[in-house]
Amino acid sequence: FKNIVNLFVFRYSLHSNTWHKISDMRVPRSSCGVCLMGDNIYIVGGYKDNVESIKTVEVYNPETDTWTRVS
């Protein structure tokens, strides 16, 4: 099984039971950690080429539809 490295992100809505494409992440990655804090989505670590690890964190702001590096 090979992980796919990409920038694409989709957000799921429990209210409408649908997926919505949101802005692309700043850094393409695979196998990353994800958590929700408040309304923001955090993407942690992952791999950029299935070998080299990424040591950064990005946060998604749904009000502005933007990603920002926070670590």
SSE blueprint:
Elements: E1 9-13, E2 18-22, E3 33-37, E4 40-44, E5 57-61, E6 66-69
Antiparallel strand pairs: 1-2, 3-4, 4-5, 5-6
Written overview of the protein:
The chain has strands spanning 9-13, 18-22, 33-37, 40-44, 57-61, 66-69. The model has no long low-confidence stretch (mean pLDDT 92). The protein is globular. The chain starts with 8 loop residues before the first strand and ends with a strand. 10% of the residues are buried. The chain is built from no helices and 6 strands. The strands form 2 sheets. A 4-stranded antiparallel β-sheet has the order 3-4-5-6, with no helix packed on it. It has a two-stranded antiparallel sheet with strand order 1-2. The protein has 71 residues and is mainly β.
Estimated radius of gyration: 12 Å
What is the helical fraction, as a range of percent?
A: under 10%
How are helices and strands ordered from N to C?
EEEEEE
Main sheet record: 4 strands, antiparallel
Summarize the structure.
By secondary structure, the protein is mainly beta.
Keywords:
about 70 residues, mainly beta, 4-stranded antiparallel β-sheet, two-stranded antiparallel sheet, 6 strands, about 0% helix, about 40% strand, globular
